[in-house]
Write a structure and sequence with these properties.
Layout (H helix, E strand, L loop, with lengths): L1 H106 L4 H41 L14
């Protein structure tokens, strides 16, 4: 019976070694799976953060800049319209002043030929004045257009008076 006990003890010892080996293998496999899962989760988290950064840089920030440019453009348009309005009022005031001056001159004329001469001078001067005033308004509009295009391109007022190429 002592021999049977020794064999049984040896078999139990061998079974314990095999069980320990299997447990260590299972633990090692579980550790590897956990490390792989942790690494995959870390990579996914990093990829998500990178995607968020790219989205922020390539979509959100340009959209914010575009919105700000549109807001500033609208503000500039309002200012430009105000300048044009003031310029047109100044021109109308000048035209009215010149018309009344011509009427005074015609009223003090001695005969019909002098009235006709005053009227002819007024019409010539008014024609010149109208062309000059239209050119001034046109130049303001062109200037505002250049500023708007420069702002949309991300620059500032181009400021170039290109004479030959337009």
């Amino acid at each position: 019976m002592a021999e049977n006990d020794t064999v049984a003890a040896a078999a139990a010892e061998e079974a314990k070694k095999n069980a320990d080996f299997a447990a260590n293998q299972a633990k090692s496999g579980a550790d590897q799976a956990a490390n792989f899962a942790k690494g995959a989760a870390d990579r996914m988290r990093d990829a998500g953060a990178q995607a968020q950064t790219v989205f922020q840089d390539r979509v959100v920030e340009p959209a914010k800049r575009a919105g700000e440019a549109i807001r500033q453009g609208g503000q500039k348009i309002a200012e430009n319209n105000q300048q044009i309005g003031v310029k047109m009022i100044d021109q109308a005031e000048q035209n009215t002043h010149e018309a009344f001056a011509a009427m005074r001159k015609a009223a003090s004329a001695k005969d019909l030929s002098e009235v006709m001469q005053v009227q002819g001078e007024y019409l010539r001067e008014q024609s010149q004045r109208s062309m000059t005033q239209a050119r001034e308004i046109g130049e303001l509009i062109v200037s505002f257009g250049r500023n708007a295009v420069g702002a949309m391109r991300g620059g500032t007022d181009m400021g170039s008076d290109r004479k030959g190429g337009e």
